[in-house]
Amino acid sequence: MLTVAVLISGTGSNLRALLEAARHPDFRARVVVVGADREADGLAHAEEFGIPRFTVPWHQHESREAWGEELGRQLAVWNADLVVLSGLMRLLPAGLVAALSPRLINTHPAYLPEFPGAHGVRDALAAGVTETGASVIVVDDGVDTGPILAQERVPILDGDTEHTLHERIKPVERRLLIDVVQRIATGELSLTSAP
């Protein structure tokens, strides 16, 4: 059974999807801990599902590196096979990425390498393109530059706003994430040989 730690900053919709998927006996992964960089609403999902949780508040540390060191200490307690960034809105320090690599994956609301960064949905709309997408990647020391594990296109419709487009991307992200985690758990997908 693949053990998974999930890191969030917000409502945790991807986290909830993973927790629900893990209820099925044929799903070969289990979330063992949920961490956050603030008192995120999504921590309520961990509580509901009886999953331990921890918070490492960003503002309580003098640097990104110090925050990353404490986050790494908290994660080390659980020794999870895989760490999923699920809407964590902080860049992890290089030392923590290196320590977790390649067992660290992230979802992104764009068809990478198109529109990396914190505003992928807004940037796609501003560019006037007709489609964007969702991606699941291995995290490296760049910004959304790691090997792509799965991705899917999502059309941009006339009248789309950042909110409406993002709401259509989210279910695709969730589906891709669940599929990737299951394929890692079954050995169908190897993070060490990801493209």
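That was protein one. Protein two is written in the same sequence-then-structure order:
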Amino acid sequence: MINLRHLYYFWTVAKTGSVAAAAERLHLAPQTVSTQVKLLEDSLGTPLLQPAGRRLKLTPAGSRAAAYADEIFALAEALKTSLRNSGEFAQPLRVGISDAVPKNVAYRLLAPVTELAEPVRLVCQEGKLDRLLAELALHRLDVVVADRMLPSTVRVKGYNHRLGESQLAFFAAAPLARSCRRFPACLDGAPMLLPGEDSASRLRLQEWFEAQGVRPRIVGEFDDAALMKAFGEAGRGIFPAPAVLAAEVQAQYKVKEIGRAKGVNEAYYAITAERRISHPALRLVTEAARDRLFSRSGRPD
């Protein structure tokens, strides 16, 4: 293996044109530089420099060696520059987020990653669960966050790690909230905004409506929970959201909680390709979900 120190001394001589000039730049004795270059020539089995008057010039082999040295030390400098920005080399956590998971929940689950002493770069993708699971199977994702366990119909090897669950609550802008005094009876005939059919809670909500003897007027269905909330904020209908986020939803969208669907709970899972979670950032996500997000508020009765 080539000694990089010997190569660097040779490269400096090639750049400056003489041993004396190279020695001055390197803050070394000329004899030290000359000896190191000779050791490199011996290891390569060919002369790299030859006298040209008072200066030295490259032999044909020396020209090739100098060209390689240019690339080697340019890469070394690029590495040093890049490492100054630790974020560039932070360990990535590649997360797939099912579009049925509310963005507020996804944020609260993943935010603790930014608290790690060792920097982690979050790489987030949002999409349909089946597509994200395919990416997980190809090891393009470290984890998929979903509102359901890995479906048995999907031919992907994976493991479910339960993050927690929350009861669902109903929210409405002030005018609608004032008209809903007797919950859940007030939902009968009321304009309702519901998550799309891909949401695991959609069927359970419809069954709950039937059990309560109410038939809301469904005016909108949304795969994007944030868009559903925006319509709710504008007073277009009542909408469900995890009770664990009640305070946040009310503050952000200027709406009021009008009641909770007892017995209708939305659970969240981290689906991984490995049985045991080894990524330190992902371990923090599961711990924070249990200890912070789902510790008290919004738990099912």
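Residues 4-84 form a domain with the Arc Repressor Mutant, subunit A fold (CATH 1.10.10.10). Keep this in mind for the problem set.
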